[in-house]
Every structure is written in structure tokens, then in C-alpha cells.
Amino acid sequence: MSDVRDFGARADGTTDDTDAVLRTLEEGDGVLSFPRGDYLLTRSVEIDLHRFGRVGIEGAVGTAKIVMGGPGPAFHIQGTHGRSADPRHFDPEVWAGERLPIASNLEIEGRHPEADGFLVEGTMQSTFEGVLLRRLRDGIRIHDRARNVLVSHCHIYDNSGRGIALDHVNLHQVIVSGSHISYCKGGGIKVEGSQIRNLQVTGNDIEYNYDENAVRSADVWIDSRDQAATVREGTIASNTMQAIQSPGGANVFMVGHDSTNNKAGQFTISDNLIGTQENNVHLVNCRGVVLNGNVVYGARDRNVVVQGSKNIILNGNSFDHNPDYNKGELCTGFRFEDSEDCTFSAMNIQDAETEVSTGERKAIVEFHRCRRMNLSGCQILNGSPVGIHLEDVSDSIIAGCTVLEDREEKAMRAPIVWTGTGTGNLVANNRLGKVDGESVRVGENVGVVLSSNVVL
Prior knowledge:
The chain is built from 3 helices and 45 strands. The N and C termini lie far apart (75 Å). It has a 45-stranded parallel beta sheet that branches. The protein has a domain of 184 residues: Pectate Lyase C-like, CATH 2.160.20. With 456 residues, it is mainly beta.
């Protein structure tokens, strides 16, 4: 390993060590070794893998700090791999000289408003482990093209921009695991304008990534509105995602563009704890997203909002609230608009004691301008002002559900209200609480058949 102090670095936090680090890169053995100390950089360290060959960046078990005192990334790692991850697609010199750039066991702190941690382009198997990135603009930004990225056991904390940015990148196989990604105002993990396959976000604590002055904030933010963008084949699993309510905020926000194929989806969102934002999960123009086994709570507006989407499945989730907070807790519920071919089953949906959300909520469960929606085997408690509200919905089923009110001060006006127009609808085999002598309010033109419901 090449000790940067042997090439002139002072590590006192005030002397500019940029030239010494560049000299180490030019003359050393390929491993930039930073012993304990504070290393001031005033410009980016450009690591051209095609020129230098295999390069690693190593701190001293977390005791080394890089202080980025200038604009741009502290380290810009650039390779030349331009094809897929298929072993047959590697030029021999790329595999021999550029694979597996690793950064580990050090801190990067920003002391310039435009300071970033890492910028990665054109790499294969870039790996970040045990890295602390704080008070930067972007922590890790991956751009242009990359394959097989690993981010593990990192702390990405208190940044003005994005924690991890997949920014206009063509990328297959990226895993973010076992990390803390918190207090990044531009989003915890943000995908923007990119072509992504195989994004795995597992076992992380992703919290408080919001900007109270922004139009939108999110902990995990996937934006495929660009016509060239497409993000598919992903997993968001076993994470804790929490924040506080912020304008347009979501714990998970995923948006495609309005086309036949939507360009965002084929995702599982499973076994997470998700809570306390304006909307916990917000999907727009998505296809093929499954929410399964999550505990979702505390929404200023809704737990789940889905707009213009298809093939969405909610199964085995608990939509609830923290009873310790009583009337201070946020509300519960989900709303689907302009969507089709969605299935909801085996869920507990219980409203908080708060009376109303920020929006004009018509029910704890809402379907508006939808078709082929199947809601079955769910328990819906204490909906306000209504349990289930449907408007302009066709070819849909509500079956085997329990919709009841058990609060001392009754707030639910009806278990089910169905309005607007529609055809081919069925409400069957449900247990429904009676409110003011009725259980289901059905408009004249909604095309609903009522069968074998038990009114309590």
C-alpha cells in the first residue's frame, strides 16, 4: 500500500494535500492508503482506471478523514467498460486493469457547498464499504454507465443533496445493504433519468431524507419521467424508512412516464417498516409493484397513493398507527386513482384517532376512476368519514372483508359508499357495521350486485 504521507501529505486538516495524493496515485502501487489524520483536498482526485490500472482507496479502520474543500467530488473514479456484465462482453484489458475499484474505511466531509464524495463512471464492480460521507452535496453519484455496484455498511449522513444518486446512468446490478442513509435533503437514494435493472435496497436504515422547503422529498426516490428512462426489476426489502411530514414527501416515491409500458415497476416492496411522511408509498404511472408484509403507519395524507398505474398488489400488510401517540398520530389509508388490474388481500387497515388528513379524504380506502380492482379478505376498522369509497369504478369486487367501527365516539358514516357510474361490480360475503340503519350506499348507475353480506 502507498502511504500518502510518504508522498508529502501532512494530514493536519489545514495544509492542502491534493498534490501529495495525486503524486501517490502517479508513483505508488495503486492503493491510496490514508493513515489516521485529516487530509484537505481542494480539487478532485481524478482516478482514470484505463491509465492507472487497478486502484483502491483505503482508510485506517475509520480513523482517516478526507476534507473536501473545493467543488466537485473528492474522488472521481472513471473506467471504460461500455458493455454488459456478461463475461463475454469484457475487453481483456478492462478486466485485467479496471475491475473492482474499492473505497473503504474512511470519512469524507464537505467544506464547500458544492463538494461531493464520489463520482463513478464507466466502472465494473465498484465497491464502497465502511465509508462515512457527511456534509457534502451528493454522497455517491453514479453517472453514465456502471455494472455490479455494491454499497455496504456505509453511513451517508447530513448531506445537502442526494445520499446515493443513480443519475442518468445505464446500470445493471446494484446492491445497497446494511447502511444508514439519513438527513440527505435531496433524497436518500435517488434514481433519475436512468436505465436500471436489478436494484436491490435491503437491510438499511433510511430516514429523515427531506427538505421542508422543496416541492418533493423522499427516502427512496425513483424518477423515470424522462422518455429514455426505465427502471425495472428491483427489491426494497427489510429496511426502516421513516421521516417527518414534508410537502410532497414520501418514504418511497416511484414515478414512470405516461406511456403504454409505464417504464417503472417490476418491484417488490417487502418486509419494511415504513412511516411518518405525507404519503408513505406513492406510485405514479407504474406497472407491476407488489407491497407485501410491510408495517406502514403514520401518513399525513395516505399510507399508499397510486395514480395511473396497473398490476399493483397489496398483500399481507398492516396499515396502522402508533397507539402511544393517540390523537397526535397521523392518519391511515390508501387511495387509487385512474388505475386498473390491482389486487388487495389479507390486510389489517386501522385508522388513527386523528380526524382528517391534509387532503379531502372520502374514506380510509378509496378507488376513483378505476377498473378490475379486487379487494378481499381485509379488515378495515374505524374508517373516517367512510370505510370504503368508490367512484366511477367498473368490473371490481369487494368480498370477504370486515368493515366496522369500534370507537366510542362514532366517526364512520357508512362502511361502503359507491358513487358515479360503472358496470360489472360485486359486493359479497362481507361483514359490515350498520351506520344509521344502512351498511352500503350504492348510487343508481354504478352497476353493483350485493350478495350474502352480513350486517352487524
